[in-house]
Write the C-alpha cells for this entry.
Amino acid sequence: MTSSAKGRPWYAGFQLVGGAAFGVAKDLRSRRMGGLIPVMIALYMAGIVLYFINLVSPLAPFVYSLF
Amino acid sequence: MVVRRTLGLSYGFHDASAALVVDGVLVAAAAEERFSRQKHDPNFPALSVRWCLEKAGVAASELDAIVYHEDPAATFTRVLASSLAGFPDTRREFVAGLKVWLGKKLWVRNDISKRLDVHPDLVRTLRHHQTHAAQAFLGSPFSEAAVLSVDSVGEWETAAITHATYEGGRPALKPLARAEFPDSLGLVYSTFTAFLGFVPMDGECSTMALAAFGRPVFADEVRKMVRLDPEGLIRVDQDYFNFRNFYADPFTPRFLAALGGKPRSFKDRLPFDCLADGPSEAPADMNFYADVAASIQLVFEELMVGLAKRAHESAGSANLCLAGGGALNCVANASLLKQPWIERLYVPPDPGDGGASVGAALYGDALQGGRTPGKVGYGPYTGAAFDETRDAALLPHAKPGRYRRFAVRGWQPRPGETWTSERPADFGAVIEEAAAAIADGKIVGWCQGAAESGPRALGNRSILIRPDRLETARRLSTQVKLREPYRPYALSIAEEEAGKVLSLTKAVQTPHRWMQLSAPVRPEAQASVRAAMHVDGTTRPQVCSREDNERYHSLLKAVGRRTGLSAVLNTSFNESGYPIVGTPLEALAMYARTAMDLLVYNGLVVRKT
C-alpha cells in the first residue's frame, strides 16, 4: 500500500484525534449529557500524560501494561 | 471517464469484513474470518482489504473513499454513559471501556488512515443502522422500500425503521423511528441464548433450532419483559436484564424467577435430535430449555411482525428490506412473508455486521450519484476464489494414514486407505461423478469458484448428501461436521421442482434463494427430504435456478436424474466452531480429517479408496 498525493500528511493524527474528541463532545451535547464533557477532558488529559510517559522506554511498561 | 473506488470496512466488535465498490458495482466482499481462520474475527480486516484491492487491481492510494460502518464517537458516548449510569456496580465496565475506547476504538479514522496510508479526509463514518439500511436497500431490486434493521446495538440505536427511495439518482434514507439502548430486542434474544447455555452473538441459531422442540409456555412471561412501544419501537423491562454490566450475567434474579429455572450449563447435553425417527423423549429439565427457546422465538416473531407492520404503515410501502443480525432469524423472516401487507421481502446475503462493510461501500459510492434505482446490487458469491492447481500438486505425496491422529473424534480412516485424484477435461464428468456419489449415499465436499459472503453456504462451499438418507445425515453430523443433533440441515432444490416439495404462500423471492426463510415441506414430500427437515416439518431452502448458480444447478439436476428429486441436503463446508473453508488446502485438510467420501474443488476430484 503505497503513499501518493492522497497519502497521509504528518498532521493527520492530530486532525483525526482532535476530530474524534470533538465528535464525542458534540454527541454528548446533543444527547443532553454536556455535564460529562469535563469528565471527558480530564480523561483525554490523562491519556496525553500516559502517551508521553509511554515515550520514555523505562516507564513504558507501566503504561502499556494498563491496556 | 472518472472511476470511483469505495472501500467499506466493518470491524471492532465481531465479524470484521471489507468490501470494494467500483463505479457502483460490488467487485469484492469478504469476512476477515475466511482469511484469518478465526471465527467472528473482530480485528482490522487487513487480509480482506488486501484481497479486495488485489482483486480489483487497485492500490490503497487510488481509493476515493473509505467508509467505516459506524460512528465511533457516538458509540463511545453510549459506552461512557451506560457504564456511568450503573456506577459503582459498573466500575469495572467503566475502566475496561475507557481502556479499550480511549486506547484504540475511538481513533478508528486515524487507525484506518495510518494502516492504509491515505489522507484522513478520505475516511468517513456512517451511522451503524444507516449502514444496515443501505446494505439492504441498495442490494434490493426495489426503487423504494420500508427498511427494518434490528440488531443488538449500534451506536445508540438497536432497531430502526427507514424509508428508502432514490432522489436524483442518489439513495435517500429517511429515518422514521428507532429504538435506543438499552431497549434492544437483539440483546434480549442474546440473553436468552446465554441462559440456554449457548454463546451470545454466535449461538442464536441454536436457540432458534431448539425452539422447534418446545412449547411456548413461557411466552406470557417473555411478553412482560419486552414489548412494542408506540414511542421508541421496543421497550425492554430492565428489571429482567443486565445489559450494562457485562462482567455479570445478562439476566437478573427476576428473570430467573419469571422462568422458574436455572441457566443451562454448556456441559449439559441437550437430548434433542432432529434426525430421530420418532418424537424426542427428553427429561423434564431439558424440555424446560426447549420451552424457553420456543417462548422467546415466538415473542421475537411477534415483535418482528409488529415492527414490520409499523415500518409498512409509516413508510407506506409493501416492499420490505430487512437487515441487522435479527434478519438472520429465518423462522421470523418466514412469519413476515406470510403477512398479506408485505408483497416483496428482501434480505441481503449477509444481513449482519459481516455485511456492514458492503452497506458502507455501496452507500459511500451511491451518495456520489449515478445509481440505477431498482437494480440488484449484488449476489451472495462475492468472496474469494482460489486456483487449486498448486495445492493439488501436494496430493501425490499425501499419506492418509499419517492423518489418523488428526481425525475427528468418532471416525478413523480405513487401514490402507489411499486417495486418488483426477481433473476431468469435461466439467460435465465432474458433475456426473459428484451426483452419482450423492445418489449412492456418500458425503461430498463441493467447492466452486467464489465463496459466498455471509454464513450460508449456497453451493460454492458446501457439503452435500442425499436429503432422504437419515443414516448418512447422522454420519455427517458425527463424523464430519461435529454438529449438535438438534440443529437441522438445509435443503438445496432446483427451482423447477421446488413446488413439489415446498409449500410456499408467495412466489419465490430472493430470501428463498439464499436460505433466509424457513418453509413448510408438503406432507407427501417429507420422506424425500427428511434429513434436511426440522422436527416441525419445515426446512430452510435454497431454491436454485440456473441463473443463480449454473454449476450447482446442473449438479442438482444430475442428482435428480438419479434419485427422482433434484435436491440435496446442503450444509456449510466447515467443522463446528470454524469458519467456512476457503482455499483448496483448507478443504483438503478437512477432507483428510473427516469421513467425507469425495471432494470436488473446481475441476479437481479427490476420492478415498
Observations:
- The interface with chain A takes residues 53, 59-63, 71-74, 76-77, 80-81, 84, 98-99, 102-104, 106-107, 109-110, 113-120, 122-123, 156 of chain B (CB under 8 Å).
